[in-house]
């Protein structure tokens, strides 16, 4: 499956039109070798707006703030893919440049465990992906599965020998 982004808007007369129809460009980082991030769309923090002329996505920082949103596809490489050895400072710089804010919620030394102040809708489109919570509680997502992630500590791992394609919609939320 190849990701595709279609965006609607309005022309000068207020008529509904397609303003974008294109494959999103993949973003790769050494942190997750062989994986592709497809940043699709985002809305600014606060309240989303519609009806603007020439809408542009908000894709930075990676995670939205309160009331903001992000939509993306992430193709996770098979877990069996051999990670390349890189300088950790160089990897951090690359992630901060290409996907700013991605590393902010991660536990130091937590093997991918992280907590975000977002409501996340994760939908498995292809392959299998494991979602692990505290105390190693785990579930495997298969195509057609939707998980609603409500700001809990978690990590994602592809243990299979083939890629897994996920769609994530993230909405910035207040932690209570």
UniProtKB/TrEMBL annotation:
<dbReference type="Pfam" id="PF07883">
    <property type="entry name" value="Cupin_2"/>
</dbReference>
<feature type="domain" description="Cupin type-2">
    <location>
        <begin position="107"/>
        <end position="166"/>
    </location>
</feature>
<protein>
    <submittedName>
        <fullName>Cupin domain-containing protein</fullName>
    </submittedName>
</protein>
<dbReference type="InterPro" id="IPR011051">
    <property type="entry name" value="RmlC_Cupin_sf"/>
</dbReference>
<dbReference type="InterPro" id="IPR014710">
    <property type="entry name" value="RmlC-like_jellyroll"/>
</dbReference>
<dbReference type="InterPro" id="IPR047142">
    <property type="entry name" value="OryJ/VirC-like"/>
</dbReference>
<dbReference type="InterPro" id="IPR013096">
    <property type="entry name" value="Cupin_2"/>
</dbReference>
């Amino acid at each position: 499956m190849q990701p595709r982004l279609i965006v609607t808007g309005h022309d000068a007369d207020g008529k509904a039109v397609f303003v974008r129809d294109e494959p999103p460009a993949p973003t790769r980082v050494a942190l997750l070798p062989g994986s592709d991030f497809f940043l699709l769309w985002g809305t600014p923090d606060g309240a989303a707006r519609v009806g603007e002329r020439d809408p542009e996505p908000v894709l930075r920082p990676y995670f939205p703030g309160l009331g903001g949103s992000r939509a993306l596809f992430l193709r996770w490489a098979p877990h069996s893919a051999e990670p390349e050895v890189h300088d950790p400072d160089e990897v951090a710089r690359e992630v901060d440049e290409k996907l700013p804010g991605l590393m902010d919620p991660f536990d130091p030394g937590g093997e991918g465990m992280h907590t975000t102040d977002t409501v996340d809708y994760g939908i498995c489109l292809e392959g299998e992906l494991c979602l692990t919570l505290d105390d190693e509680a785990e579930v495997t997502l298969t195509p057609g599965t939707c998980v609603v992630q409500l700001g809990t500590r978690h990590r994602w791992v592809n243990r299979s020998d083939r890629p897994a394609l996920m769609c994530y919609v993230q909405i910035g939320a207040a932690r209570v």
